[in-house]
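Why does residue order matter? Because the sequence determines the fold. Keep that principle in mind as you read this record.
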Amino acid sequence: MTSSVTRTAHEVSTRALAWLHAHRERGALPADVTAELGDPNGVYKPLGETALAASIVLREAVAGSTELRLARELVDFCWRQFREGDMLYERQLRFSLMTDPLESYAPFARTGLRHEALDVLLAHTSALRSVRSAESVPNRRLAVANAARVVGLDRGGRAYDWAALTRATWLGATPEPWLIDWMTGYCVTHTVFHLTDWGARPSGLPEDLADYVSTWLPVWIDIWAEIEQWDLVAELMIVGCCLPQPYCTSADWERLAGAQHADGLVPRDGDPVPDDPDERFTDHQHTAVVAAVAGTLAVSRTLGDTARRL
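Structure:
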């Protein structure tokens, strides 16, 4: 059964990665964009997400040579879009309380792309009480902490209190699992992502939370698969790969593979996918990102022969 998961996950992630690569120019920043970014969620944030997916493919190194080349080309493309770090530096310099330059920088740092001036600036701003105290929801605080860890800033007197950050989240309270809703589902997934650095540190998830997630994750996946919320389903499947004892089932992977289009697009939900190429990319880029990450981690964990065989 594990070999079936590995094969299907590899096929899904390979097609999703190829789709992101083939359409990458549709996600380019406008030529006149500045570091002020009137709409950060429009193109800037998705570029960072694409870089994240590609960085995980490169980190795990379980894909074929073609996929590794595509992943490297995607990272390099996104890095050029950010003017090789200059845009992130300018944005952090102008808006000291914003965390997105650090978070966007982390995937590039993971792959060895560094910006000297940004490193110096982040070392300064990340230690400021004002920056550390900026208010945000708990799982977002974990996102910043993990980005700092990847970049190399979570150490010494600047180390984050991971236990306190964890218990402040919805998941950290091990609440009534049947009260989870769509948005809280995303919060749960990201809490796990950041605690484990996207599966690189499964032990970063406290034991009681790992037990809680292991118990309820199959139920949550089934719920959102039934209503065809494929983006959240793929994120929950990433969570399964981040557990100390990973949860990867052939049924889940066959279901996601069945939703994927022949060209590699993974639909966000059960609504009709538009014919317009730009709209198709904008609406479904994120789901391709999470499918690529989920597939890569599933292959990596199942090749380790530790996944639960179901």
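The CA atoms of residues 118 and 124 lie 10 Å apart.
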